[in-house]
Write a structure and sequence with these properties.
The complex is a heterodimer. Chain A is mainly α. Chain A has one domain: MetI-like (MetI-like fold). Chain A is built from eight helices and no strands. In chain A, helix 5 runs antiparallel to helix 6 and helix 7 runs antiparallel to helix 8. The longest helix of chain A is centred in the first third of the chain and has 40 residues. Chain B is of the alpha/beta class. Chain B has nine helices and eleven strands. In chain B, the strands form two sheets. Chain B has a six-stranded mixed sheet, sandwiched between helices. Chain B has a five-stranded antiparallel sheet with strand order 2-1-4-5-6. The longest helix of chain B has 16 residues. The chains are: A mainly alpha, B alpha/beta. Chains A and B meet through helix 5 and helix 6 of A and helix 2, strand 7 and helix 3 of B.
């Protein structure tokens, strides 16, 4: 059995590479986009606010798998064609940005009005107030839900199999079907668990760092 | 010299008129106590002075610079940039302290002088340490606000406002959310400031402070300045009926 596991590791690692690409690109792009959307959502611009609310409703209100299929299979019918990886990235980033937008919005709104007022009386501009006073406090508040969302993403990456991308999950399934052996499932499980373990520890440390002022 | 000139101030929240033509003048070195029943517009008046609230009508001149000018068709404000500069000539102390919880005491003090006034950091730190000594909190320099008592937090808030070298200090019920045994330390700090001839406007329910420290007492109720005078005139020989009633009620 050990020999078998060693024999499938290279293929599974190749699958991990696709999974990791989807994961990291989604995180790197959707968090800033989510933050930007959150600022729009709490702004005074009513058109922007309503548009973002609608966007969030659509992205959270439909399955991510449907969105993946839409960007890959439906858009070519109106002449927009993406390769599988690009389509997957668009769907993941837009979907996760909607969730991050709501997390950041809640975080921003949790900051008491008095913080803005104190900054105002000290002559701070909107940008200074956000950068120096509000956001550092928001980051602490949103860490637990962001951590949650990040760990969900590790597992959601497996949805790219519907676009026939050879991520960890699809590679595993192919191996199981080829060899009539369920061992690859167990190995894949260990891979996912290791990834979430690393993230859990990382976020625990971040939370500890950011909560130093409230103990 | 006049530090604050507010003339004919009108302020409305939706349909509720809170200030109905208020005049307030504060000269250099004066300590003005604003007293009166809750909902009478005291805090709102203070918050209008530094544009935490905007007024509908009236003129506000701070330290010789016009923040808002009455045009006859409403108040016209200075540009955002100018208004910000004028507003931060006034340090403000809030009922809820509003310290920045993610910064240590020292960081709270130096934040705005360094970020807004762009002053030399080492110099600002030196001054901040002197201010902390003045409010008796040198040993709390590197502590986060949550570790401090309410009275200590409020003294840090006073020091933070002073670090900007303001021309005027505004106090919005600075002791109202403190336990009774903690109000003394905050009032003492304010008294020391008054002795150094800092120009101050204090919205307060502490009649003892108004009587002993203020040079002028303003009594506000129902959106009007009902009476204004020296502490003796207000507390010993009140003539205004609304004021007499108020003093009677709080005596009980």
């Amino acid at each position: 059995m050990l020999d078998y596991i060693i024999s499938i590791i290279p293929q599974m690692l190749a699958g991990c590479q696709v999974t990791a690409q989807v994961f990291f690109l989604t995180i790197i792009l959707s968090i800033p986009l989510g933050l930007l959307l959150a600022f729009g959502r709490v702004s005074n611009l009513s058109l922007v606010k309503h548009f973002i609310a609608f966007y969030v409703w659509v992205m959270r209100g439909t399955p991510l798998m449907l969105q993946l299929l839409f960007f890959y299979f439906a858009l070519p019918s109106v002449g927009i064609r993406f390769d599988d990886f690009t389509a997957a990235m668009i769907a993941f980033v837009l979907n996760y940005a909607a969730y991050f937008c709501e997390i950041f919005r809640a975080g921003i709104q949790a900051i008491p009005k008095g913080q803005y007022e104190a900054a105002h009386t000290l002559g701070m501009s909107y940008v200074q107030t956000m950068r120096r006073i509000v956001l550092p406090q928001v980051f602490r508040i949103v860490l637990p839900p962001v951590s949650n969302e990040t760990i969900t993403l590790v597992k959601d990456t497996s949805l790219v199999y519907v676009l026939a991308m050879n991520d960890l999950m699809r590679t595993t399934r192919n191996l199981v079907q080829r060899d009539f052996d369920i061992t690859p499932f167990l190995v894949a499980g260990v891979f996912y668990l290791l990834a979430t373990l690393v993230l859990t520890v990382l976020f625990e440390n971040l939370e500890k760092h950011f909560s130093r002022y409230d103990q | 010299m006049k530090k604050i000139e507010a003339r004919n101030i009108y302020k409305r929240f939706q349909n509720l008129e809170v200030l109905k033509g208020i005049d307030l003048e504060v000269s250099e070195g004066e300590v003005v106590a604003v007293i009166g029943p809750s909902g009478g517009g005291k805090s709102t008046l203070l918050r209008c002075l530094n544009k935490l609230e905007t007024i509908e009508q009236g003129t506000i001149i701070i330290d010789g610079e016009t923040l808002a000018k009455d045009t006859g068709k409403g108040a016209e404000y200075a540009s955002t940039e100018d208004a910000r500069r004028i507003a931060c000539k006034m340090g403000m102390v809030f009922q809820q302290f509003n310290l920045f919880p993610h910064m240590t005491v020292l960081e709270n003090l130096i934040e705005a002088p360094v970020q807004v006034q762009k002053r030399n950091k080492a110099e600002v730190i030196k001054e901040a340490e002197i201010l902390l000594e003045k409010v008796g909190l040198s040993d709390k320099r590197d502590v986060y606000p949550r570790k401090l008592s309410g009275g200590q937090q409020q003294r840090v808030a006073i020091a933070r406002a002073l670090a900007m070298k303001p021309a005027i200090m505004l106090f919005d019920e600075p002791t109202s959310s403190l336990d009774p045994e903690l109000t003394g330390e905050v009032l003492r700090t304010m008294r020391e400031l008054a002795e150094e001839k800092m120009t101050m406007v204090v919205v307060t329910h502490e009649m003892g402070f108004a009587r002993e420290v203020a040079t002028k007492v303003v009594f506000m109720a129902d959106g009007y300045v009902q009476a204004c005078g020296t502490p003796e005139e207000i507390f010993e020989n009140p003539t205004n009926e609304r004021l007499k009633h108020f003093l009677n009620v709080i005596k009980k």
